[in-house]
Structures are given as structure tokens and as C-alpha cells.
Write a structure and sequence with these properties.
Layout lengths: L6 E6 L2 H14 L4 E7 L15 H8 L4 H8 L2 E3 L1 E5 L7 E5 L12 H10 L11 H7 L14 E3 L2 H14 L3 E4 L2 E6 L6 E6 L4 E3 L2 E4 L16 E3 L8 E8 L8 E6 L2 E7 L3 E8 L6 H10 L10 E4 L3 E3 L3 E2 L2 E3 L5 E2 L7 H14 L8 H27 L7 H8 L4 H13 L12 H9 L16 H21 L3 H9 L1
Helix pairs in contact: 1-6, 1-8, 8-9
Length: 491
């Protein structure tokens, strides 16, 4: 394809979303596109999305990113899951790990075998049957053959954007440091024609990627796409973030600690710790949240606390005319399950699969939006689950969460699990084993198990459960400690 036929891709905004898109489009579609990214050094980014999930490993393989170089550049650590503290009830904790728990059979998931074992006094804690969980709790990590240990990363989001910028610029991206003053639309079809910058330049394009954060400068202010508010299901609307010095070796998991009206995160990097508090402003003021956060951190603060206000929900279309929204411009789900970067990645990969080299096709647009809706709705339900299924009644916030209505799709999953112990993965949804890990962790126990489990004798069941635990314990014993492995791997 000659340069004259290249599609002109204009990315409005940098940050994690903008530079992930820039690196992907330049590296994968280099001969088909010319990519320009516009960002202003005067406009900051939210930049607190420092915890990820295992799908980022796939994204990096797609872009042929060297893992050791990436980790060194972003001061990254490995992550095996998320520890939820005080969610089910005060002083209770469970770890949602990235691995598979136990062994399924064709008719029933492992939780059915575990439930019978629990009834007969044979089962231990559900998490004892997951390698990733036991490794995380032991503070251990290593790369195992055949992806034997599922993992993600804790990263410095600012350094990650800088790392991706180098890749994109090496592949020929044009970066313009300026603010966008105006958006010009084509009269015939309402498509975006160009962006006028504060330096007077006019940047024309064929495809525009909106990475302008909550402002949604293109997708909303120019195209008036509309926003679907989910705050009636996810009432937290604010966060405060601060970075602190490290006071110990980094652990291979994120900590999510529930408090009176929300929760606190702790994300360990190689050089520091990311801390933050997500809360509902109906119950906690910004000043109270800052005070509570600073009273519950370890290590010297490295910056002043930064308050962020948000509204959970999504744009009514992720792709509208010739504009695709990524990141905060497309919508927002709080970072409870570290899905923010995953949703950016999904949008990028989806666009690569449907990239309109020969012009925009409405069928592609509709399919893109349908898939985007599917992804975010299932993640939304999973996050609501953590708030709604709880024994906590100690504060007005938690009483509200217990009593609130939830989406019909989530109500069905909860009711199905309680009545039958069954969990079914729908289509290509992100979470699978995670559903039973969190439901059981939050205190939701099935009333029955699949009858196929009773075809096993008590001795056979005891042997199955014991063998799984023994194999996991042996594997964990052989793993090095996370910090030791990290030190060797980063050299």
C-alpha cells in the first residue's frame, strides 16, 4: 500500500490509553497508517492505573515487547492476584487469584467437589486448591513452563506511557505538544474532519481516537454521544491517591482494604508503593478521605494527595462515526479488579481486528459497540458483586450496598450459584474461575452440588482433594521468593 492511501489516525490525548494505542497502531499497522498523537505537557493525566491483569501479558506479546526491558523501564513487580480485606466482614480476608481452582470435570466445576468435601469434613479453604493463591500468600513467584503460573504486573503508569512512547516514535509516530482548541465536523455526515490546536495548526484525519480522559473532548463534547450512568449500582464517586516510599520487599499481589464507605489500595512497585482510597462522597468528604488515607499508609509520602472525582458508567457508543473512545473517555469502572488497562487493551485489539482500511463500515461499528458493551457490562456486574454480597452492616454505606437493586444479569448469576453451585462463562467474557472465588470469598455458599460428585466414593474424593493440595504445596515450596526472583530477573 502506498503512502497516499494510508489511513490518517489521529490520537487525541496521551496517558496510558493514548500511548498504548499509539504503540499498537504503529507497530502492527505500520504500512497501513500514519499516526499522529496530540497531547499537551500542561495537561496532567489521571495516572493511577498501576495494577493490571494477565491479559496485558498477551498484549505485550502481540507488540513483541521484551518483558525484562518493560519491567526495568516501569519499575514493575509481578502480581498473582488481589487480596480483599474487610469485604465479607471486618477482620476477614480472601485472595482472588489469577489461576484456576482445583480440577473441573466435564459436567461440573471443582466447586461441586469442594462443596461435598466441605460437607464431609474433607475440604479445607477454597483457595488452598489454587496454585497462584498459595504462591501469592507465600510471597513467591517464578515463570513456570507452559504458562504454569498466571500473572500480571504492578507498574508505574507514568513510566509505562513513556516506555510505549519510545516504541511508537521509533515506528514513525508524529507527536505534537499542544492543546486542542476546536473540533471541525464534516457537514455531509457529521464525521470529524480536523482538530484545530492552540498553536494554530489544523490536523486532519480519517480515524480519530479519543483519549482525552473524563472530558471526552471528541466522543462527547463534539459528537454528543451520551453517557449511561451506573452510579446507582456503583456509588463510589471519588478517589484520593498518594505515593509512598517502600518500607519492605514488594509482595506479589494487590491489597484492597474495605473501609467505612469504600476501600483502599496498596500497589507495591520496585521503587515505591502506590496508595489510594476510593470512596462515596455521600458518606465521606474529600478532607476526611485524605486524612484517613494518610493515617493508613506505610512509608514517607512522595507527593501531595491528589483527589479525583468520577462517575461510573459508559458512553452510549464507544465508536461513533469516525471516532473511537478509549480509556476514561469511553467510560469508567472503579479499579477494584484492575480492569482499566484491560478495557483499553480490548478496545485497541478490537479496533485492530476491524480496522477500516477501506472506509468505515456500519456493520463493523455496530459489532464493535456490541462487543464493547458486552465486555464492560460483565466486568461491571463482577465489581458490583463485591459490594452487594457482604455481611457488613456496620455503616450506612454497607447497608446501602447490601440492600440496593442489582442488574438482572448479576441477580441471575447469584441466584443460580446459590441454588445449584453452577457458574457458566458467557461467550468471551473476561472472568471465569474468578466468579466462584469471589462469591465464596464474599460468603455466598451454594445450597447444593452436582449429583455427579456422588459417583465418587468418600475415599476417592478425599484422595482427589488431598492430591491437589499436595501438588500445589510442593510446587510452592520450589518457588523462589518474589523479591529474589525479581532481583535476578531485572539484572
Amino acid at each position: 500500500m502506498t503512502d497516499s492511501k494510508k489511513q490518517r489516525v489521529v490520537i487525541a490525548g496521551g496517558g496510558t490509553a493514548g500511548w498504548m494505542a499509539a504503540a499498537a497502531f504503529t507497530r502492527i499497522l505500520n504500512r497501513q497508517v500514519d499516526v499522529t498523537l496530540i497531547e499537551s505537557s500542561d495537561i496532567g493525566t489521571v495516572g493511577v492505573g498501576e495494577a493490571t491483569i494477565p491479559t496485558l501479558v498477551f498484549f505485550h506479546k502481540l507488540l513483541k515487547i521484551n518483558e525484562q526491558e518493560f519491567m526495568a523501564a516501569t519499575n514493575a513487580t509481578f502480581k498473582l492476584g488481589i487480596n480483599f480485606e474487610n469485604w465479607k466482614e471486618l477482620e476477614h480476608a480472601y485472595l482472588h487469584a489469577f489461576g484456576v481452582t482445583g480440577k473441573d470435570c466435564w459436567a461440573a466445576g471443582f466447586q461441586h467437589f469442594w462443596m461435598r468435601g466441605l460437607k464431609e469434613g474433607l475440604s479445607t479453604d477454597f483457595g488452598d486448591y489454587c496454585l497462584e493463591r498459595k504462591a501469592a500468600e507465600a510471597g513467591k513467584f517464578a515463570h513456570l513452563p507452559n504458562n504454569g503460573l498466571n500473572y500480571a504486573y504492578h507498574i508505574d503508569a507514568t513510566l509505562y506511557a513513556q516506555f510505549l512512547r519510545k516504541i511508537a516514535e521509533h515506528e514513525g509516530l508524529t507527536r505534537i505538544d499542544a492543546k486542542i482548541d476546536d473540533v471541525t465536523m464534516r457537514e455531509k455526515d457529521g464525521y470529524i474532519e480536523s482538530l484545530t490546536l492552540d498553536n494554530g495548526d489544523v490536523i486532519e484525519g480519517d480515524i480519530f481516537i479519543d483519549c482525552t480522559g473524563f472530558r471526552g473532548l471528541l466522543i462527547e463534547k463534539a459528537l454528543h454521544t451520551g453517557y449511561e450512568d451506573w452510579s446507582h449500582w456503583l456509588p463510589c464517586d471519588s478517589a484520593v491517591a498518594v505515593q509512598t516510599e517502600s518500607v519492605g520487599d514488594p509482595i506479589p499481589y494487590t491489597r484492597c482494604i474495605a473501609h467505612e464507605a469504600g476501600w483502599q489500595w496498596r500497589i507495591p512497585l520496585q521503587h515505591r508503593v502506590g496508595n489510594g482510597m476510593v470512596y462515596c462522597s455521600n458518606y465521606v468528604s474529600d478532607d476526611e478521605a485524605i486524612e484517613k488515607l494518610l493515617a493508613n499508609i506505610k512509608g514517607k509520602p512522595l507527593n501531595d494527595p491528589r483527589v479525583i472525582h468520577f462517575r461510573t458508567g459508559r458512553r452510549r457508543k464507544q465508536w461513533n462515526r469516525n471516532c473511537i473512545a478509549l480509556g476514561l473517555a469511553s467510560g469508567f469502572l472503579e479499579p477494584l479488579e484492575s480492569t482499566s488497562i484491560h478495557l483499553i487493551q480490548q478496545g485497541i485489539v478490537r479496533l485492530l481486528r476491524m480496522f477500516p482500511i477501506d472506509g468505515i463500515c456500519e456493520e463493523d461499528v455496530n459489532e464493535f459497540n456490541a462487543q464493547a458493551d458486552f465486555d464492560i457490562e460483565h466486568i461491571r456486574d463482577f465489581i458490583i458483586l463485591h459490594y452487594h454480597v457482604t455481611n457488613r452492616t456496620d455503616t450506612p454505606f454497607w447497608r446501602h450496598c447490601r440492600q440496593m437493586d442489582v442488574p438482572d444479569s448479576l441477580r441471575h448469576r447469584i441466584d443460580l450459584f446459590v441454588k445449584t453451585g453452577r457458574v457458566f462463562r458467557e461467550g468471551s467474557e473476561l472472568f471465569d474461575d474468578s466468579w466462584q472465588q469471589v462469591m465464596i470469598g464474599q460468603g455466598l455458599m451454594p445450597q447444593s452440588y452436582h449429583p455427579i460428585v456422588d459417583t465418587m466414593s468418600r475415599q476417592e474424593l478425599e484422595q482427589l482433594l488431598s492430591q491437589i493440595r499436595t501438588n500445589i504445596d510442593r510446587a510452592v515450596d520450589k518457588l523462589p521468593y518474589h523479591q529474589d526472583y525479581l532481583t535476578r530477573y531485572s539484572q
